[in-house]
Design brief:
about 90 residues, 5 helices
Length: about 90
Amino acid sequence: MLKSLTDIQKEVDSCLKMVGQYGKCLKGIEWAVVKELAAFLSHFQDLTDIVSAKATSLSVIQLIRREIQDVCTINSSDCEEVVALKRAVARN
């Protein structure tokens, strides 16, 4: 859903402005956070697709756990929101 939202960013802003909801328009930094969150969460969509395959085996579990650990590694370029999300996912 976040990916779809970023794909129609200009249209969303235009519609909100057209109905006079200027305060609900996201600022540039907020759009950047949405894009970064969408990129982070896309990894989980990929993993969900793997698990949802007809021929999933238990041997995939360790690979998925390792992938989640890798995805949750905090980078210096991560925004605060993504860092918090990565920490929460890594804890659980």
